[in-house]
């Protein structure tokens, strides 16, 4: 079954809005929650329609540590508006041969666990962040660097957070997930060696709180692929569309 990084990393940031808001309201030493979400995504691969993926939500947060399923962050240092954190996240990118006819005869592409550093800077104009992550499992053997601007609008029972992200993905990532290697070439599938590229993503995250415990979360985004992804013979779209619907109970 096709899967994607969106399930892991962006669900983490979406849930974090809800959990952080609850933490401000309750100010416990530890905060944790359980829930269930559904991810609807179209990554642009030929012959692969919208993929719906159920996702369990397991959340735990302390003053410096945050865990959501297989993803985590740990704050190393910081001031009131500037923080430095170690991050670890499961990359769900990849495909299997039976996901689409376009992949027949190709080796499966696996996900990875990526580690890196995240810097957050909060201002009155919005939040700015920079993140660098690299493959810790030797799957795609690449790395990526992203810059994000977001602005949160908080109301009594709900919050909305639009954002914009630019991500530079290394040659190894593009070649692994979108390339066609010499042993995979066919009459209808040409050799394709990927190179580094930059993607632009725009999206909005929102959550609605019912009392102190119940949280309903929505998320939608559109990513415009860089030319090195769009030129891949495995891709027939200019970008990807992703939606999250989720519920979390905060204890």
Automatic annotation (TrEMBL):
This is MltA-interacting MipA family protein. One of its GO terms (cellular component) is cell outer membrane. Residues 1-25 form the signal peptide. The keyword Signal applies. Its main location: membrane. Belongs to the MipA/OmpV family. It is found in: Cell outer membrane. Keywords: Cell outer membrane, Membrane, Signal. InterPro entries: MipA. It comes from the Bacteria. Transmembrane segments: none annotated.
């Amino acid at each position: 079954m096709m899967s994607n990084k969106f399930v892991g990393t962006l669900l983490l940031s979406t849930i974090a809005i809800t959990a952080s808001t609850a933490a401000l309201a309750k100010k416990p030493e530890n905060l944790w929650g359980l829930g269930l979400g559904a991810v609807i995504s179209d990554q642009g691969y030929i012959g692969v329609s919208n993929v719906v993926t159920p996702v369990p939500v397991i959340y735990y947060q302390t003053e410096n540590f945050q865990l959501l399923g297989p993803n985590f962050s740990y704050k190393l240092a910081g001031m009131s508006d500037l923080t430095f954190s170690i991050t670890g996240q499961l990359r769900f990118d990849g495909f299997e041969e039976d996901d689409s006819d376009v992949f027949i005869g190709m080796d499966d592409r696996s996900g990875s666990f990526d580690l890196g550093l995240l810097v957050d800077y909060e201002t009155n104009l919005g939040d700015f962040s920079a993140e660098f992550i690299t493959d810790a499992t030797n799957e795609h053997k690449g790395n990526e660097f992203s810059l994000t601007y977001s602005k949160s609008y908080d109301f009594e029972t709900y919050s909305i957070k639009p954002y914009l992200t630019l991500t530079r993905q290394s040659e190894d990532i593009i070649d692994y997930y979108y390339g066609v290697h010499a042993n995979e070439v066919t009459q209808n599938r040409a050799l394709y060696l990927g190179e580094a590229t930059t993607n632009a993503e725009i999206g909005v995250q929102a959550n609605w709180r019912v009392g102190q415990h119940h949280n309903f979360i929505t998320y939608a985004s559109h990513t415009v692929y860089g030319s090195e992804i769009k030129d891949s013979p495995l891709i027939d779209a200019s970008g990807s569309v992703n939606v999250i619907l989720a519920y979390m109970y905060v204890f």
